[in-house]
Amino acid sequence: MKYLRYLVVLIVMSLCFAVSCSKGKKSKESEFLFIGTQGPLTGNVSYFGTQVLGGVELAVEEVNRTGGINSKQVKLISFDSKGNGKESLLIANKLIVSDVCAVIGEPTSGAFLSSRSAYDRHGIPVISAGATANGVTDGLDYAFRTTLQDSIGAPYLTDYLIDEKKYKNYVIITNTADSYSVSLSVFFRKRLRERNANIVAEGRIFGNPTDVSAEIRKLRGKDIDVVIYTGYYQEAAVILNEMGKQGIDAIMAGADGLQQDVLTPLVGDLGVGIIYYAGFSPNTDNELVKQFNQLALKKNLQSEVFAAQAYDTANIVFSIMKKSNITNCNADSRSMLRAGLSKVRNYEGVAGTLSFDNEGNALKAPFISEIYKTGAGTYSTIVTE
After folding, report:
1. What is the CATH superfamily name and number for domain 151-278?
2. Is there a contact between 49 and 105 (Cβ–Cβ < 8 Å)?
3. CATH annotation of 31-148+285-365
4. What is the pLDDT of residues 164-203, one digit of tens each?
5. Which residue, of 5, 135, 269, 361, has the fewest CB within 10 Å?
């Protein structure tokens, strides 16, 4: 009996010690407010993920330097998804149990689609600063995006090419391995047909080809003003270089996957004249943009759309947390944060004026940029619309 009593005492003491340690750990963690980030930091689309992370880090450094949120410092929990859908979902499950207030989610549409529902089921706000495909937030209470929608950007650019540039003859090239490219081509094709523009031909590539000579050869001898490519800059570079070799004299147009700072190092002068739409341009007279350019320069970060939208995204989250007096990341706090996000109207950020619609989509105007060569022999963009 004495042995049993002694054993019971030991067990009770052990349990009390465990509870005490647990409380101590929880108290220590509650000194901070945690924000999750996930995206491709390595792999073929790592540029987008590193830019998003850099933009969020800028906002976190700034808010912590000025006193934090309701007297608490913000800490980031970041994971590399490599842009892979399965990995994205695994990371979402890790962040769900990591006591985060919100997550700045995947910047690419496919990976965001893979992970968004998991956050919604657990009542954690997730906001993409890059996903542009149609419907990525539809039907989900906790999913948002601060990026320009392709359903707005593609028709807007198409109208500009027709009305302002007076281009008549178009080719659309789609990467059939990329759901983003397939979706974007639908928007361009639809608008070109609505405007009675001439679609001379449609081309298809798959994945990350190094040789597109056969596909470009089909364009020779045709009257082409614009080649619309709906994928990313890596494949665009292969297409442009092949167009140069085969003497296809046409400009390229597309979305923010064709940004100057990543494309012109791969194609040089072949990139001059490219026109693309995006949710941000560093080349405006806006004071917020000028300040952001300086912040990005100090951090050795590109001042471009993914970094800018991520910076705005984090600052929107922080502003709501401050107004809602959020001091922890429990379910009630996340619910208040979601409610605040749904009410965002006319937020003035570095990437323009933003409101969320009823599905959590950003409502904002596109920036139309054209690549040119400076007198110093470098490349830049001018905002034309």
Report:
1. Response regulator (3.40.50.2300)
2. no
3. 3.40.50.2300
4. 999 999 999 999 999 889 999 999 999 999 999 999 999 9
5. 5
